[in-house]
Design a protein that fits this description.
There is one protein chain. By secondary structure, the chain is an all-alpha fold. The chain has a domain of about 60 residues: 434 Repressor (Amino-terminal Domain) (Orthogonal Bundle). Helices cover about 65% and strands about 0% of the residues. Helix 12 packs antiparallel against helix 13.
């Protein structure tokens, strides 16, 4: 039983109320309440609010420690957004709102590191809707408008990501493309590229990988002035879509280009905050996943193993019995026992948020990214069991007509993955 479930049960028993009585005073059934209190069902903010109102116990007392991510999510859900607060005071908004929105986006993005997409969707939806309302209805100067549009674009990327994570692919595509428009109006070509490449990643997984590859190439072509880390991220999406398309040459050239872009980083180049999670280990895990898609698990294994080991070293206290590569984790991911899977589809984004997290949120260090966990879990899940146990289509570009493969393809070269 987790701490929140135990606190709900304790609050009810301290009030001398039975499960049947509590069910009668809420719209939740007695069996559901029993599952919540035993930790067998996920507790949402509305469950906590119901307990708080019926038992006359403060929400803060039920949630406990202030760094509980579900408590943060609840407080976010019941409080006014900065956009709503500023517009309530008048139609003219200024730089202070832009600053609050920028900070809010960063906080939401990092909240995605500790709670699943399903829990974040209502928060991000509301934040995005209020920010779009400000952009459409309020008045502001040019610089504030640019910053507001950029915040809308970043919120759209996050909204699309968490919707896709929860299996709501149509909604994800819609918000991704609306974000492209906002980013384009803000003059932020790198952000527009990030939105298109995020959609490409979804399409590669649940749609036509050939269309995904074209979307990813459009993103790279449009974001021609992207910083090195951003360019590496966009090129990764080309590699993944190409791998899903079984285009071996394009995959390997893209992976080499990822390495080149990432190696070009410098201390004098300021990267956008939204690429904070991309590092060498993440790049190697994605390269490993691509190689597995191409039917080369032997080449993928050392990349994935090294990345997982490096994460363990940088995140002490993780049990080898529960992490990626462990027998239990491998079985949970449904790892194939085939020696070289031909079409190893990674774990569906729709199921990732419902799978027990590794490591638990309470055990994650500040640097432990949910993206790292998900990517490593996917990669380990794609490896054959004998190895792992050892460890929308048709969218138009924001920059006009979609380029052809020949216009934006990566030049052939000799590198880490090409020969």
């Amino acid at each position: 039983m987790d701490d929140l479930a135990a606190r709900l049960r304790r609050a009810r028993t301290d009030a001398g109320m039975s499960l049947a009585a509590l069910a009668a005073r809420t719209h939740f059934s007695k069996p559901l309440l029993g599952l919540l209190e035993t930790g067998k069902r996920t507790i949402s903010p509305e469950h906590v609010v119901a307990y708080s109102r019926v038992l006359c116990v403060p929400v803060t007392a039920l949630y406990g420690a202030p760094d509980d991510p579900l408590r943060i999510a609840h407080e976010w859900l019941v409080s006014e957004t900065p956009a709503a607060r500023h517009t309530a005071a008048g139609r003219r908004v200024g730089p202070s709102l832009a600053t609050e929105l920028e900070e809010r986006v960063v906080e939401l993005r990092h909240l995605d590191d500790v709670i699943g997409g399903g829990d974040l969707i209502p928060l991000v939806r509301r934040e995005l809707a209020d920010a779009e309302r400000v952009v459409n209805e309020a008045s502001y100067d040019e610089d504030t408008g640019r910053r507001l549009l950029t915040a809308v674009g970043e919120l759209a990327q996050l909204a699309g990501w968490v919707a896709s994570d929860a299996g709501q692919y149509a909604e994800a595509q819609h918000v991704y493309l609306s974000g492209v428009s906002a980013a384009r109006d803000a003059g932020d070509r790198a952000l527009a590229g990030q939105l298109l490449s995020s959609l490409s990643y979804q399409v590669a997984n649940v749609g036509d990988p050939a269309d995904a590859a074209l979307l990813a190439r459009s993103a790279v072509a449009g974001a021609r002035d992207a910083t090195p880390t951003v360019r590496a991220l966009l090129l990764e999406r080309i590699a993944w879509a190409s791998a899903r398309s079984r285009d071996t040459d394009s995959t390997r050239r893209a992976l080499d280009s990822v390495d080149d872009a990432y190696a070009a980083r410098s201390t004098g180049t300021e990267e956008p905050e939204w690429v904070y999670w991309l590092d060498r280990n993440e790049i190697d895990v994605m390269a490993g996943r691509c190689l597995i898609e191409l039917g080369e698990p032997a080449r993928a294994e050392p990349l994935i193993t090294h990345a997982v080991d490096a994460t363990h070293r940088n995140t002490p206290g993780k049990s080898p019995c529960t992490g990626p590569g462990s027998p239990r984790h491998t079985r949970a991911l449904g790892t194939s026992t085939r020696p070289a899977p031909h079409y190893a589809l990674p774990a569906s984004p729709a199921t990732e948020s419902t799978r027990p997290g590794w490591p638990p949120a309470s055990n994650r260090s500040p640097g432990w990214s949910a993206r790292t966990r998900k990517h490593q879990a996917r990669a380990v899940g794609q490896l054959p069991e004998r190895r792992s146990s050892r460890l929308s289509a048709g969218a138009t570009s924001a920059w006009g007509n979609r380029p052809t493969k020949q216009q934006v393809s990566t030049p052939r070269r000799i590198g880490r993955y090409t020969a």
